[in-house]
Amino acid sequence: MPKPISRSKTRKSVSKRFKITGTGKVMRQHASRRHLLSSKSAKRKRHMAKSAEVDKTDTYRIKSNMPFA
After folding, report:
1. Burial of 15 (0-12, 13-18, 19+ CB in 10 A)
2. What is the DSSP string of 1-18?
3. Can you give the pLDDT of all 69 residues of the chain as single tens digits?
């Protein structure tokens, strides 16, 4: 019997945390927006609501865990 071809699976935890744009950038959400929001200013909370780009040193690791994105 021939050996089956090994395929890399998508890490579901990574696919839920990160999104890949059409141009290939990896986007993430900001931390510290779940609780203790009364002590944070409205401007700070508003800026944390927007997504941010992942640092270029981490993009390879994330994309390798999301082979079909």
Report:
1. middle
2. -PPPPP-PPP-HHHHHH-
3. 788 888 889 999 999 999 999 999 999 999 999 999 999 999 999 999 999 999 999 999 999 999 998
Bridge partners, residue 28, by sequence: 52
Give phi and psi for 64, each to the nearest 5.
Answer: -70, -25
Question: Per the structure, how many domains does the chain have?
Answer: 1
Residue 6 lies in a domain: no
CATH for 48: 4.10.410.60
Residue 1 lies in a domain: no
